[in-house]
Specification:
This protein is of the alpha+beta class. Helices cover 36% and strands 25% of the residues. It has 3 helices and 5 strands, in the order ββααβββα. The protein starts with a strand and ends with a helix.
Length: 136
Amino acid sequence: MVLYEGSVVGEEETAGEVYVDGASNILSKPEFAGGETMRELFRTFEEKSRLVSILNECVAGDSGPGEVKVVIGRENVTPSMKGCAVITASYQVGDDISGTLGVVGPTRIEYARTIAVVNYLARFIERALSHEASLH
């Protein structure tokens, strides 16, 4: 799970935060058994600027919050992500995009379930942040 907090569109290096959780789960997938493939993928996860770039690619052309974007395999521009599916959704508070969350997995990921979870979590975060903003 990748969570980016801060405006994504048009920004490569930002003051926003990138959170990665559960990256080690991908180790159990046979597609990622190759040592060099795995090393390169984890290098990508460790570099904030690369993750922001990947998220920018995923949400480019996105019609905005509420839409889930799916990038599969060779559609990924980043070479280390060619064997992956990336499912993302932006969340918004007010007129600004506040962040994007996504799941990276093998191309054989369970798409329907993962899309539903990513969408649900993005909307949940959106509602929680909107509620918090209305309290201030």
